[in-house]
């Protein structure tokens, strides 16, 4: 109970500081641009390349949002410093990290340009043939989660996907266009906000659904949205599981009773949901001929790094780089009221909620190695 109220206070603080900080950040917003860097390294033989995976299409939340929220009337933004200090040109693009996201690193590995946010005015023409990014920070599997923050849930993201398909077919013609749509790699990275920015702040939702029922609802959405994406033409679909919710710095601060260790109760919620997603995806393989449905665990990569940071090249696990590292995220992580650590790469977490670019690069290696053999093997019969 206490922690629910504490979370509410934090939310109120976030809302209040928004007013005070906006004046300063308003100026900073001018610095925001969409990412232009087109990285096209030579991809060695036997690896995935743009002839196999011509495009990368991204759905989800702030773990993969490349700047869509910049264009929305929401407080959930990161298009100001210190976000982006390690991005090319030190530009705060709206990515919730210091540099590149996991999806950006994967695009580099595929040898295709990084995907522009769908809302960007630049996201038209040739550039979208290698995919686009539909993710919106603060959204979840449950559309109600996005509504609280006036951002776009998966319902809207899939409508946008339909528009993208139409534009691809117009630009590339039916043969090439359909090749792009059915051979693209699709990723859905979401789910944390359904719990930490919705359920645990929302007594009404808690009264309506006990935790188990809520998990069932979320997993039903995983199934429905993955099936919908398949029915719309996607074939190579990566579904990410939940991270260890209890190891996220802000959650240790809010729910950890003063301990610096991961909150087991929250981690158990994540493990339980992940197990149900795994069996749901497994069952769906029989109903999705021609598809490759790939569940990607991110729980253990993060949990293991948290337990033994040195082993993975990090010095700090519990504290993010921005501010105290315990609570600052979005408007609270800004260069006016929060200091930034000297070397983000030593931290697993950038702010109290999101990993650093250094951690994302490791996660990208792990995901690429997991996905590659599945893509190179035949799809579901
Ligand atoms: C999932 O789809 C089924 C079948 O269309 C529907 O009955 C159910 O209400 C959907 N679940 C959610 C959570 O939207
Ligand atoms: C702090 O963590 C220890 C070890 O996990 C645990 O035994 C203890 O109950 C925790 N204390 C509180 C107040 O939660």
UniProtKB/TrEMBL annotation:
It comes from Ceratodon purpureus. This is Uncharacterized protein. Pfam families: Lipase_GDSL. CDD domains: SGNH_plant_lipase_like. PANTHER family: GDSL ESTERASE/LIPASE EXL3, GDSL-LIKE LIPASE_ACYLHYDROLASE FAMILY PROTEIN, EXPRESSED. SUPFAM superfamilies: SGNH hydrolase. The keyword DNA damage does not apply. Belongs to the 'GDSL' lipolytic enzyme family. One of its GO terms (molecular function) is hydrolase activity, acting on ester bonds. Residues 1-26 form the signal peptide. It comes from the Eukaryota. Keywords: Signal.
């Amino acid at each position: 109970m206490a922690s629910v109220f504490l979370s509410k206070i934090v939310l109120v603080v976030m809302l209040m500081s928004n007013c005070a900080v906006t004046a300063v950040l308003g100026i900073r917003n001018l610095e925001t641009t969409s990412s232009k860097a087109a990285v096209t390294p030579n991809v060695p033989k036997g690896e995935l390349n743009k002839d196999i995976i011509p495009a990368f299409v991204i759905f989800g939340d702030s773990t993969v949002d490349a700047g869509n929220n910049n264009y929305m009337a929401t407080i959930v933004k990161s298009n100001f410093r210190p976000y982006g200090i390690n991005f090319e040109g030190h530009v705060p693009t709206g990515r919730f990290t210091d540099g590149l996201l996991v999806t950006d690193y994967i695009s580099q590995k595929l040898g295709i340009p990084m995907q522009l946010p769908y809302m960007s005015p630049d996201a038209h023409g040739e550039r979208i043939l290698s995919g686009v990014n539909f993710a919106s920070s603060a959204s979840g599997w449950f559309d109600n989660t996005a509504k609280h923050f006036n951002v776009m849930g998966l319902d809207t993201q899939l409508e946008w996907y339909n528009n993208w398909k139409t534009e691809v077919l117009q630009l590339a013609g039916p043969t090439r266009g359909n090749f792009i749509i059915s051979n693209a790699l699709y990723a859905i990275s979401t789910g944390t906000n359904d719990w930490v920015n919705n359920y645990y702040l929302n007594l009404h939702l808690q009264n309506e659904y006990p935790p188990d029922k809520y998990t069932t609802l979320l997993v039903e959405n995983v199934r429905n949205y993955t099936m919908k994406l398949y029915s719309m033409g996607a074939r190579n679909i990566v579904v990410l599981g939940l991270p260890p919710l209890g190891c996220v710095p802000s959650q240790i601060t809010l729910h950890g009773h003063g301990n610096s260790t991961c909150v087991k109760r929250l981690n158990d919620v994540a493990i339980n949901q992940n197990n149900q997603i795994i069996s749901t995806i497994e069952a769906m393989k029989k109903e999705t001929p021609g598809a490759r449905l790939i569940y990607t665990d991110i729980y253990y990569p993060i949990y293991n790094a948290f337990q033994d940071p040195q082993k993975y090249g990090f010095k700090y696990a519990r504290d993010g780089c921005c501010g105290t590292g315990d609570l600052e995220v979005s408007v609270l992580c800004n260069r006016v009221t929060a200091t930034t650590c000297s070397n983000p790469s030593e931290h697993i977490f950038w702010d109290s909620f999101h990993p650093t670019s250094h951690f994302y690069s490791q996660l990208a290696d792990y995901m690429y190695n997991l996905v590659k053999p599945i893509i190179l093997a035949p799809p579901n019969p």
